[in-house]
Write a structure and sequence with these properties.
Shape: globular
CATH architecture: Beta Barrel
Largest sheet: 10 strands, antiparallel, barrel
CATH class: Mainly Beta
Number of helices: 1
Distance between the termini: 55 Å
CATH topology: Lipocalin
Number of domains: 1
CATH superfamily: Calycin beta-barrel core domain
Length: 177
Amino acid sequence: MNLKVPWIFFGCAAATISALLAEQTESSKALGQIKALIGNWSGTFQWTGGRNDNGSMNATYYVTGNGSAVVENLMNESTPVMTSVYHLDGPDLRMTHFCGAQNQPRLKARRIDLEHGAIDFDFVDATNLRSPDAPHVHGLEIRLIDPNHLTLTFLFQSGSVESREEINLKRTEAKPS
């Protein structure tokens, strides 16, 4: 039996595979940039919107899961108040946030612009969320300013009230991976 497959099939399949690989590549590159954050950081936080507060914030980043994930611990003094885990899920860059509000929002990168140091995440769903109006993180904006400066902006929703927590960090110590 002689099967002839139209060349257009191969062209469409190649285009689809190329598009998926390009998306994976961007997510992989973004995770690589987040992996480059390993070490200790210090800085400040500023709440605006429905909540107003400010103070000092420290952070540690380390790689886990045989290099497949990055853990971010955000701390007031030396006590972790929030932990986020960044990882790939197929072609997507994902983040699970273990919130001080005692729920776990899961986010997906919707914008990756490494030329400008920007990675933006949108809310997908959450575990342990008592109701849709319960306080929770519904977005995150990461700005990789340079290898030693970073800004995280958590978008926080509580009912119809929105707040932003901007955290500006400076590297204090790099640790080997």
